[in-house]
Design goal:
Largest sheet of chain B: 9 strands, mixed
Largest sheet of chain A: 7 strands, parallel
CATH superfamily of the largest domain in chain A: P-loop containing nucleotide triphosphate hydrolases
Oligomer: heterodimer
Number of domains of chain B: 1
Number of helices of chain B: 5
CATH class of the largest domain in chain A: Alpha Beta
Radius of gyration of chain A: 29 Å
Radius of gyration of chain B: 17 Å
Largest interface: A-B, 46 and 46 residues
Order of helices and strands of chain B: HEEEEHHEHHEEEEEEEEEEE
CATH topology of the largest domain in chain A: Rossmann fold
Strand content of chain A: 5-15%
CATH architecture of the largest domain in chain A: 3-Layer(aba) Sandwich
Strand content of chain B: 25-35%
Helix content of chain A: 40-55%
Number of strands of chain A: 26
Distance between the termini of chain B: 19 Å
């Protein structure tokens, strides 16, 4: 195991000798390298030299290139020169801060970094700090900080909001940001960029070192790492290491029939199990937690050899997760079923196969996951993709091509979210009194906030103080106040306490602890028992006592809710309800979408697809046509009493949903009586009472008019005004901005009584202050996230003049998958009253003596 | 979840009011208004429940700066109801204020709105669990319960069947399911013997009729949920909520 250690995977095969003029490694390092028969790689020494010379740096390297050691080398060398702290010396803050996107990664690095440090006998203390770190240890860390602290973005936010943050970080020399490409995206990245700006204020000598996998646009990351000025573009230095051995990836070959739709991949279980048996250790990845539960159960149903197969996902109890991770690193497991909690560069044990179940959605996610197996640059990784339905077969093929050509798509960093800024402003006030202008200068030095207007910043401060409403009635309850010296201060200590409970940008729906209990002889439910993890509250509210569901790999019988716990007993059924977790469904990435479109259009690429998929597409070709690369294919056909229209846009579920909302409004206006729509990653289907195909043929409306870009103007505005979609987005913004409290374990008992519905707040704001800062934040979020308007706009521009209409007499083969999705979407908006009216009709019929069926 | 009552309050300033639905409680004729109030013509009385005034301020006092517009919106709806029906007696069935200090700290402008509505009428404030001490500095009388015209008005429904009881407290709501689609709305709930009022305040949530707190209150076979729609009431028999 020691020789396979990936941090130290530094065998000399591809390393040219070090350049002249590089700082010499201190004796313990050279001795240790010599002892192991290794020598440092060129990029590791290069990075050491440039960072030591005072540059902020970005290192881009494939997995297994000794990236992490490279990132820590400047710290280790600097600390070795410094020597061990003598007892009785003045308080010294931390020297190096390491930030990773995952708790598990921080734990893993601690394990892997301690090993060379102790082997070399370096005078360095290293400790981790995550949400799971016990309170006592955290306190101790504040009084007596380690030299190197390994932590997550949320913990950083807490540390700098603490009154002692200044003291804690004053000696900070280096910040190592691991997996930078995944740290910078989304609101979490925004929060971290603000934290980094604060660290630069506290420790101006600090240098940032970013470590990243291959990305499409390194310059964006280089700029993210350094403070941005008003009129100059500044960026960190860049070192790029070329890729290692190409991974060997295949799509699961199967004799079974690949289903039309669905996401379970049940059909492939026997083949997957066979692959597990043929390998030493297999990692199985899925896209959602419920898929993980299902896959785990399916595998155990056919696990005739009793292979040690484990489950790992974010909802499981932390103790359970640690157990699995430990067993994994000791090579005691044959397979682990996991979701994104095990994602990114974590390396445990001798994984020799990665199986990805379901479509990989984003090509970069796939590359990331494949990197898991065989963490050595010179040996190819092995991976098998298991598509769950026929469209996913094409997507897998596209992802496979993408991995070979090394294309990576990273979500853009985006403009800094205002709700995150509000959280940071409150945190800043908790740390120390601040002046508006000084904090504004610090905030706008962070790349995501570089373009923030001072006026908007003032609005955010007002929001933090009193809610920022036009009607000023809360002045006397203000959370922060500007005192005579112009500085903003927190009003009372409870404010800081409230901030600490709500820090972070990941908003979970309320969770209940799942506890296994026993029934006693009289049938009463006992107390105590093992904690299995957490489920969303809304899920348990759907259950009645006696219902069974799948959790933690077990079929459980729901017994009831007691305080903040969901009590369960062993279930003895085989057909449980599966937990329906929110989120976790990634939309198809722009890059993969283009690849799938291209594949459909290109007979040569199609010929690489499995036979049953080829047959399906040939059939489509015969009765209709396959969409060409830069064209939008629209099919219309009647079915039952309704008329259907399917648009094969390949822009991902979110963009399709938005398109569906806007198109149905237009069709309604044109008198075609649309009844509903359903969106998948690949297509959009709309059904109506009137014959849409005929209407398009007589150009009333023409398809060009229907799909005109102007739908993103007034139609979008009008829809957003009455949409229910925005409410969900608003809830997240309100929690992150600190308007309503995130609920926490242990608080539920009282929490239930003081919560207020975010929906209601949204209604009030929409009607009284539609331009409130949180409404702005919500609309920005929706436009980029939930609605994917940018992508929809690009598509509408692209297909202009390239719309092909096929009026068919019946459903086409390509339409079958989406038609199977119909009937699963909930109703929203105006149609609600129609449902009520129908129900009321029943009562009238009853009154008239009609017997209901 | 529930209908957007804030928007309703806005519309109520200009638009025509929705149609009333007629029902009976303990043999007494009652008219249900889709704005969320009940008229008892024989008593010339308007009943509303669970106004939860000053809820926003109650949260602001604890550091949560909720929008300060809830009181105004609720009072706007109420004044619209009063203008429409011009009742001789108004009964507010408890939880008029979200907490004990709400009545004392309410801004003068809102106080004056209530005074204007109360002019020329009798007003009864029933105490609720949120405002057990009654109200301060407002016209009308405070009481724990009221018996009048064969009916009993109280905040919390008493256990078991109670003919002629009008209560609030539980914020009843019902889910209607048709063709796999579901809609949830606040509702009046009555089995002909007793009636539960929907919460009137614009920032109040709802509790499902299936919730265990509703157990034993109604004779389920004759229970009807009168759901508050956009501009009308939808009356659905309990057994027909699910298709």
């Amino acid at each position: 195991m020691a020789a396979r250690h990936y941090l130290l995977a530094v065998n000399a095969i591809d390393s040219p000798p070090p350049r002249d003029g590089l700082p010499l490694l201190p004796a313990p390092f050279t001795g240790w390298f010599a002892e192991k028969g290794w020598q440092p790689r060129a990029h590791q020494l290069d990075l050491l030299a440039r960072v030591s010379a005072g540059e902020d740096m970005l290192l881009i390297a494939p997995t297994g290139a000794g990236k992490t050691l490279a990132g820590f080398l400047p710290s280790l060398v600097s600390l070795t020169h410094r020597g061990r702290k003598k007892p009785g010396t003045a308080f010294t803050g931390i020297h190096t801060l390491y930030i990773s996107p995952l708790k598990a990664l921080a734990v893993d690095i601690e394990r892997n970094l301690m090993k060379p440090v102790s082997e070399m006998g370096l005078p360095i203390t290293i400790e981790g700090r995550t949400g799971d770190t016990p309170q006592g240890k955290r306190q101790r860390q504040k009084l007596n900080p380690p030299d190197i602290l390994l932590t997550t973005p949320e913990q950083l936010a807490l540390l700098i909001a603490n009154g002692e943050g200044e003291r804690f970080f004053k000696d900070l020399r280096y910040v190592v940001l691991d997996e930078l490409h995944s740290l910078v995206t989304s609101k979490r990245g925004h929060l971290l960029s603000l934290g980094l700006a604060r660290l630069r204020t506290l420790a101006p000598e600090m240098r940032a070192i970013g470590l990243s996998a291959t990305v499409a646009d390194p310059m964006e990351l280089q700029r993210w790492l350094v403070p941005q000025g008003a009129d100059e573009v500044r960026h960190a230095g860049l070192i790029t290491v070329a890729g290692g051995a190409k991974p060997v990836i295949t799509i699961l070959g199967t004799e079974e029939r690949v289903p039309w739709s669905g996401h379970s991949a049940r059909y492939a279980m026997a083949d997957v199990y066979a692959a597990i048996k043929e390998h030493r250790t297999t990692l199985l990845f899925v896209n959602t937690r419920s898929q993980a539960e299902l896959l785990f159960q399916e595998l155990w149903t056919i696990n005739d050899d009793n292979l040690p197969i484990a489950l790992h996902h974010g909802s499981l109890d932390v103790g359970q997760r640690r157990k699995v991770e430990a067993a994994m690193s000791e090579n005691k497991l044959r397979a682990v079923v996991a979701t994104s909690t095990l994602d990114l560069g974590i390396d445990w044990g001798d994984v020799d196969l990665v199986i990805h179940v379901g479509a990989p959605k984003g090509a970069s996610r796939l590359a990331q996951r494949i990197g898991r197996s065989n963490h050595r640059m010179d040996e190819p990784s092995r991976a098998i993709l298991v598509p769950a339905n026929r469209f996913e077969v094409m997507e897998c093929q596209a992802a496979l091509d993408a991995n070979y050509i090394g294309a990576q798509d990273t979500p853009p960093i985006g403009a800094g979210a205002l709700d995150v800024l509000a959280q940071h402003v409150l945190g800043s006030a908790c740390a120390a009194p601040f002046a508006t202008e000084a904090l504004y200068a610090e905030v706008t030095s962070a790349l995501p906030y570089a373009d923030l207007a001072l006026d908007t910043f003032r609005q955010v401060i007002e929001f933090v103080a009193t809610g920022g409403y036009a009607l000023k009635t809360y002045e006397r309850y203000a959370r922060i106040r500007q005192t005579a010296d112009g500085l903003w201060r927190v009003s009372n200590p409870q404010v800081a306490q409230q901030y600490r409970l709500n820090v972070g940008t990941i908003v979970e729906s309320p969770m209940l602890n799942v506890r296994m209990v026993k029934r006693n002889a009289r049938g009463a439910v006992g107390r105590g028992g093992m904690s299995l993890g957490k489920v969303e509250e809304y899920f348990t509210e759907m259950l009645s006592p006696g219902d069974t569901f799948l959790f933690s790999g077990k079929v459980l019988r729901f017994e009831g809710i007691r305080e903040n716990e969901c009590l369960v007993t062993q279930g003895f059924k085989l057909d449980p309800k599966v937990p329906a977790y929110a989120g976790g469904k990634f939309p198809l990435s722009t890059y993969l979408a283009a690849q799938v479109r291209d594949m459909l259009a290109d007979p040569e690429r199609r010929s690489h697809l499995p036979e049953q998929v080829r047959d399906w597409l040939s059939l489509q070709h015969a009765v209709s046509q396959l969409p060409r690369a830069d064209e939008l294919l629209i099919e219309t056909f009647p079915r039952g009493q309704r008329h259907y229209m399917v648009a094969y846009a390949f822009e991902g579920r979110l963009a399709h949903q938005t398109l569906g909302m806007l198109l149905t409004r237009r069709l309604e206006r044109m008198g075609l009586k649309p009844l509903g729509f359903v969106a998948t990653d690949y297509a959009l289907a709309i059904w109506a009472l009137e014959d849409m195909g005929w209407a398009f043929q007589i150009r009333q409306p023409s398809l060009a008019a229907l799909f005109d870009e102007d739908m993103l103007g007034d139609d979008l505005e009008a829809w957003l005004d009455e949409s229910f979609l925005l409410k969900r987005t608003f809830r997240n913004c309100a929690v992150i901005a600190g308007l309503i409290d995130q609920r926490h374990p242990g608080q539920e008992k009282t929490g239930r009584q003081v919560t207020v519905s975010a929906d209601l707040i949204y209604d009030v704001l929409r009607s009284h202050e539609p331009n409130h800062i949180l409404m702005q934040a919500t609309r920005n979020d929706a436009a980029t996230g939930l609605l994917d308007i940018g992508r929809l706009g690009d598509m509408l521009a692209r297909i202009k003049g390239h719309i092909t209409h096929r009026a068919l007499e019946r459903i086409s083969p390509l339409a079958v998958p989406i038609m199977l999705e119909i009937g699963r979407e909930p109703v929203a908006g105006e149609a609600q009253d129609a449902v009520l009216a129908e129900a009321a009709e029943d009562l009238i019929e009853e009154a008239l003596g009609v017997i209901p069926d | 979840m529930t209908i957007d009552r804030v928007a309703l309050a806005r519309r109520a300033e200009t638009e025509l009011a929705g149609a009333l639905v007629e029902t009976e409680v303990a043999g007494i004729r009652a008219l249900l208004d889709p704005m969320g109030g009940m008229i008892l013509p024989s008593l010339d009385m308007l009943v509303v429940s669970d106004l939860h005034l000053e809820k926003g301020s109650a949260f602001a006092r604890r550091g949560m700066m909720l929008p300060p517009y809830d009181t105004l919106a609720t009072l706007t709806l109420l004044s619209r109801l009063i203008v429409r029906h011009d009742p001789k007696i108004v009964v507010s069935l408890g939880d008029t204020f979200h907490d004990r200090v709400g009545a004392a700290l309410m801004p003068v402008a809102f106080r004056e709105m209530i005074a204007a509505m109360a002019r020329g009428r009798e007003w009864v404030w029933i105490a609720g669990n949120h405002d057990p001490d009654g109200v301060f500095g407002l016209p009308g009388i405070s009481a724990d319960s009221l018996c009048h015209g064969g009916l009993t008005f109280r905040h919390e429904p008493s256990a078991g069947p109670q003919a002629g009881e009008i209560a609030g407290h539980l914020h009843p709501a019902a889910i209607v399911t048709r063709r796999e689609k579901s809609v949830r709305r606040a509702c009046f709930a009555t089995d002909g013997a007793r009636l539960l009022m929907p919460a009137f305040g614009v920032t109040t949530g709802g509790l499902d009729l299936n919730h265990r707190a509703m157990t034993g209150l109604f004779n389920r076979p004759s229970l009807i949920a009168h759901l508050l729609g956009r501009d009308r009431i939808y009356s659905v028999r309990y057994g027909n909520l699910k298709s």
